[in-house]
Amino acid sequence: MAQLQTPAKITRQTIGSGIFFRVERQTLQRIQDTQDALFTIRIYNTPLQEVAQDPIRARLLSRHISTMSNDFKSYKSILKYEDLLQEYLCRHF
Prior knowledge:
24% strand
């Protein structure tokens, strides 16, 4: 039986490598000469430190987080890390 790994504790020192920015790219393509369609999902998981290397991306992400509703932040597990996230992002723009 597989064991679940306990996630590493997120701190000021580990947030850049411990938090990942996840983006899904979804496409729907009609298959030629049929009534069928192909639905694909491509998932990109990028460490926060890589996103924050670009000051523009760091600023945009910070702004978007600050305008999210608390319900959405909770759903995305941002609420418990929001202060650390904003502090980290602000250091990079």
